[in-house]
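Hi Y.,

Following your request, here is the sequence exactly as I used it, all 165 residues.
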Amino acid sequence: MNQKELKELIEFLIEKDIAEFELERGDVKVKIKRAGTHTVVYASPEMHRPMVGSIPEPRQTSSAAPVVSSSPAVPAPVEAAPAEDLHVVKSPIVGTFYEAPSPGAPPFVKVGDTVEVGQVLCIVEAMKLLNEIESDVAGEIVKKLGSNGQPIEYGQELFSIRPKK
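Below is the corresponding structure, written out as tokens. Let me know if you'd prefer a different format.
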């Protein structure tokens, strides 16, 4: 089951106001429990590690994505208004932020580096898949907003880039 299918399933459960759901498809097992504005998602093979986070209200548009974090005690980050001339790169998926291709390797980019369109900025690991996050603008890295090895949420800001003029 991929990220898109999981997102659609959660949105369907919200729409139908279903509090608990379990699915087994071959060797894949998914168990979802909802309680108020939080959901707990268990996905095999690591059924013992729940992921907890906020989910969108049923009245929101279907394009809203569920926000999942590793701990219910961690509040969602407060979005600061970006400076007018800065471009913000956001995470397209929920996962774990990595600033380098492997442990001990230098980071893909650091503050002050100049990047081009398509240049890899970081990796987001989701469900054992390593997803390279690329810059969608050319410019200078002004701020790195993710911490290496930390869980990140869908739409979380990762980098601020001052675009080339």
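The chain is about 10% helix and 40% strand.

Thanks again,
Q.
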